[in-house]
Amino acid sequence: MKKEEWGRAGAGLISDRWPKDEEGRAEESAFLCTCGGTNFSDELTVNMLEAYGIPCLRVYPGDGSFGRVILGASGTGVDIYVPKSMLEVAQKLIEGVENDEEL
Prior knowledge:
single chain, alpha+beta, Alpha-Beta Plaits, 5 helices, globular
């Protein structure tokens, strides 16, 4: 791995990672969940999904983007969207393991 490919700089633009159809258009996004904007659950969720190769969009409803810029956190929460084709896998990942028998 080259030095410039390591870490956040290696992640690239989300448009480069988002799945595209046969004509090169970006796949439709699907709503995954809403995370609270003050406890960094959105950061944990997005980082986990990205680690599994699922690109994510964050949408800050209402004035949430303003709070994110000024205060560092959105008081209105964060809506997370993923590519429609990856929604089922993303839902299973954020559910976690419900009981030890599944291990």
